[in-house]
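quick one: 2-acetamido-2-deoxy-beta-D-glucopyranose bound model?
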Amino acid sequence: MSNLKLFFSLIVLLIHATQILTQPTVFREYIGANFANVQFSDVPINPSIQFHFILSFAIDFTPGSSPKPTNGKFNVFWDSENLSPSQVLSIKRQHPNVKVALSLGGDTVSDKAANFTAFSIDSWVSNAVSSLTSVVKQYNLDGIDIDYEHFHASPSVFAQCIGRLVTILKRNRVISFASIAPYDDGEVQRHYLALCVGYAGPVHIYSVGPGPLRDDLIFSLYIPCNM
Ligand SMILES: *[C@@H]1O[C@H](CO)[C@@H](O)[C@H](O)[C@H]1NC(C)=O
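yep, here:
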């Protein structure tokens, strides 16, 4: 490598490192997917960092044993008896550093893949905005997380649906943050990269696991989405 190239590589590395180190520390815990009677108060909360609970999951499928896609009309699929609107309010009152989000999608619905499915971009976005606005308000939530892992749509359609949804929810002040946590899988990363490139502003990226440096691809995706 020439000295000049080395110099520029170091500058780029330094900029990236500075951005990562200046991100506030956020601990995030997905909760409620396994119906194991876990409550917010069971989880120890460090008062000196930001703490996000992520209700898992809201899914745009019908409930029951043969789920059908609803084209963006989201239903609550988390353990809402133990993680109810009043319990959200209560944990936030006790801990000012706690925010609560819901996550969209997840791996399965009734043991089948929770496929991202949109009949059209406009109709999916419109249904998702209205259904999620009511759930977020009902449950006193602060943000949404995107965790689709299976896709019946191209990366471009997925990116436009999610990007427009997040933009509108933020503009309407329904949510104050949105996040994604893509994992190390080619198909998954193609869809989230399209979202990242098209909607760099509104969506923040977190990695699932011990920390943001766990995985090379997540590490490199972390930067462009926050610029
Ligand atoms: C999702 O799609 C797969 C095929 O790609 C199918 O086997 C599965 O049943 C679908 N999931 C649901 C909930 O319909």
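The chain has one domain: 24-226.
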